[in-house]
Amino acid sequence: MKTPDGIQSGRVQKAPENFLDRDGISTVIAESKAGRRNFIRSAFAAAAAGVAAPMALAQGNPVPTEGGDPNILNLPEHATGLGQGVAANNGYGVPSKFESNVQRRQSPGLTQTTQASVSFAPLQSLFGIVTPSGLHFERHHQGWWDIDPSKHRFMINGMVKTPKVFTMDEIMRLPSVSRFHFIECGANTAVEWGNVAVPTVQYTHGMVSCSEFTGVPLITLLEIAGADFKKAKFILAEGGDGSSMTRTIPMSLILSGEVLVAYGQNGEMLRPENGYPLRLIVPGIQGVSWVKYLRRIEVGDMPYAAKDEAVHYMDLMPDGQHRQYTNIQECKSVVTTPSGGQVLLDKGFYNITGLAWSGRGKVKKVDVSVDGGRNWRQARLETPVLSKALTRFNIDWVWDGKPAIIQSRATDETGFVQPTYKHLRAARGTRSIYHNNAIQSWLVQENGEVKNVQVS
Amino acid sequence: MSKFRKVILTTALLAAAGFASAQSTAYPGVGRPATPKEVAAWDIDVRPDFKGLPAGSGSVAQGQDLWEAKCAHCHGVFGESNEVFSPLIGGTTNDDIKTGNVANLKRADFPGRTTLMKVATVSTLWDYINRAMPWTAPKSLKPDEVYAVTAYLLSLADVVPENFVLSDKNMAEVQKRMPNRNGMTTKHNMWAGKEFNGTAKPDTANVACMKDCIPEAKVASMLPDYARNAHGNLADQNRLVGQQHGANTAVPENKSTPAGVASTAPSAKPAVKVADPALALLGKHNCTACHAQNTKVVGPSFNDIAKKYSGKAEYLAGKIKAGGAGVWGPIPMPAQTAAEADIKMIANWLAAGAAK
Asked: What digits encode the pLDDT tens for the residues A94-151?
């Protein structure tokens, strides 16, 4: 692979001198001179078979014949010249130009407009649990806006003693909390309900992101307005944009103190695409309930049957009934690398890594299989492991070059185990669209390419 | 009168009217009572029991006229169009109106699910049309117009007759004829509360088996070879460095290549691109509601326009300002009210090739 500067990067297959006998080496060198690199590989494979496995593996970073790596021997410009000054890019740093492949992307053909559409987060390229704000997935129902925060107002009405309005200044005066939570669209992995439909983890699972959100617990604001907590059972959250998205939220969840009226995301204000200047944070609940550009909360005693809970975001069962008011994102996980569309460059050691989450609390454990679900090993959970947040897992793996089917299976603190497609389809059929939390399978082929597959 | 005194007075009035009584005193000075006028301006939701529904009425015939002017270009004249959004109408029968269950929802072979097949509550239609339609001018319909449009939609599905006048008085009667009114259940474990009669347990019960859990796994579904590059070159969608690189899907897969020799991926895209300022205007003025870069949506694609009118910026500016019909198809483009400078910039961009 070439970088834009023409510098070779990435791994190169090492010639297998160390692992061949004298005859083998001379054959390989002769073949190499003749340009038959394929022969080197097969010679290597044959040789490797007879030697202790770990030693037999190719080195990704071989010593070139000149006796040293030109990237070491020839000092580059950045080691011999003057670098750039502070506060470049108008005072807001941007990723390296070499990271331009890491973008949120639309899935071709999914929607006809860009305003009622989705862009997916590049999970295959992310580390840890925090999604960089500029790579957070997007779902808009009627286009996004960049709203003047000095003109944004937040209202509470309905079953309250006093309907109230707040400015952003006022909301930001109140005691704030900062918490890490995942947000997942109810339709994440939707296209895979019936069969494999998309190639990479970005498109299968990229409608999940995780941020540190800062804001005020909604219950504080409801207390200020004097909400009737005895009679009120639901609230309606309403956006201030064109779609004025509305969703019914259970009062019991608000009473827990988890639901936030948030303005902060990863240390700065929310991004406009994520609801600047104010959005609802409903941990564990599907993204459509995290109303963006939040302008109003109505306290009530019955559900509202809003468009996105009476036409969409319902789960069709085989008997023709729709499950309405399904909002929890059940326990789920996915291996982000190796994952579909990637290529393993060598045999040998790999760190299988991925993300797990549960709308019901903390992830308790994640198991990983490399044989399509027959045998499993427990992965390491990296800290922090937080309630209703993405959790990063890692597990060691030495690839022997043979086909492998990699899966991950999360268990949450309620004891719920992430289902297989078989379990999910037995319970809900294949036409549910939403809330697909099935175990994902990635096939690592002998040629190193990784494919999205479903197994029987 | 000072603003501050006005607020005090409003508070006093509200208190007198019985609105304000005991309030939380923990956060003095934060938030103020909303005036009835303010609440009325924003409290537009309509519940399934019709709380919030304003008085008014509209006929199917009035609705049809509105529909053709404001709705048909996205939804089709009969609400059947699949071009921009999913179809609204179709798939329901008179028998469904009797039973309250849409029979086609049981059929795995039935293509698509229309809004009328799914929605159980007529309030949902009224509420959503009122708050979010038309697509490029939400909240511009008056209540009587919302009644009329709702009536027209319902008539297309035979829920109401062609001479019907829908009003706040007869909405409850119409509700009794909604084709999928009995099609919803809350008997599940996926509502995060106890407000509904949900089930106690989740509907799947996998176990964390560790050894010899299943016989050998077989691949049951994967993408066909022809879809290899359908999402673009995956090499360009992965970081340049890392334990795995992206597969070069611009070329056919080399299935015989053994492990350890990845096909080389092409270089990263040019890193820094400066977007044409016209692109921002397309969003600002809602051009992209009807036009897309490469594909026909309601109107022609920008690329097609650029091809046809290369170098004709002045002509294009005139067309944007005045609107037009008949060049690209039967659906007219309304006259645009954007600022002169903006229109010029968009026209220049189109005439220069509509580069993204």
From this structure: 999 999 999 999 998 888 888 889 999 999 999 999 999 999 999 999 999 999 999 9
**Domain membership flag for residue A6:** no
Lowest-confidence segment of A30-39, A80-89, A230-239, A244-253 by average pLDDT: A30-39
The pTM of this model reads 0.81
Task: Tell whether A181 lies on the interface with B, counting CB pairs under 8 A.
Answer: no
- Containing structural domain, residue A22: 17-78
How many CA atoms are closer than 13 Å to the CA of B38, on its beta-carbon side?
18
- pLDDT band at B330; cut points 50, 70, 90: low
Domains identified in chain A, total number: 3
Query: Do A264 and A337 reside in the same domain of the chain?
Result: no
In Å, how far is A66's CA from the nearest CA of chain B? 22
Residue B11 has pLDDT above 60, yes or no: no
Residue of B nearest to A436 (CA): B204
Flag whether residue A184 sits within 8 Å of chain B, measured between CB atoms: no
Residues A282 and A223 occupy one common structural domain: yes
Q: Residue A412: inside a domain, yes or no?
A: yes
Q: Is the peptide bond before B277 cis (omega within 30 degrees of 0)?
A: no
Mean pLDDT for A17-41 is 44
Query: Do residue A288 and residue A258 come from a single domain?
Result: yes
B25 CB within 8 Å of a chain A CB? no
Which ipTM did the prediction report? 0.85
User: Residues near A261 by Cβ (< 8 Å), separated by ≥ 6?
Assistant: A154, A171, A215, A216, A217, A218, A221, A278, A279, A280, A281, A294
Query: pLDDT over 70 for what percent of chain B?
Result: 85
**CA of A448: which chain B residue's CA is closest?**
B259
Q: Please indicate, yes or no, whether residues A239 and A177 belong to a single structural domain of this protein.
A: yes
Cα distances (Å, whole numbers) of residue B266 to A340, A417, A440, B246, B258? 18, 41, 28, 10, 20
Residues A303, B101: C-beta atoms closer than 8 Å: no
All residues of chain B having their beta carbon less than 8 Å from the beta carbon of residue A41 are: 258, 260-261
User: Chain B 202-231, CB below 8 Å of chain A: which residues?
Assistant: 202-223, 227-228, 230-231
- What SS3 class is residue A336? strand
Residue scoring higher pLDDT (A171 or A49): A171
Same-domain status, A148 and A242:
yes
Query: Domains, chain B, ranges and CATH?
Result: 3-42 (no CATH), 57-175 (1.10.760.10), 277-351 (1.10.760.10)
For A416-456, what is each residue's pLDDT tens digit?
A: 999 999 999 999 999 999 999 999 999 999 999 999 999 98
Whether B297 sits inside 8 A of A372 (CB atoms) is: no
Q: Which of residues 316-345 of B touch A (CB under 8 A)?
A: none
Shortest Cα distance, chain A CAs vs residue B155, angstroms: 19
Residue of B nearest to A256 (CA): B193
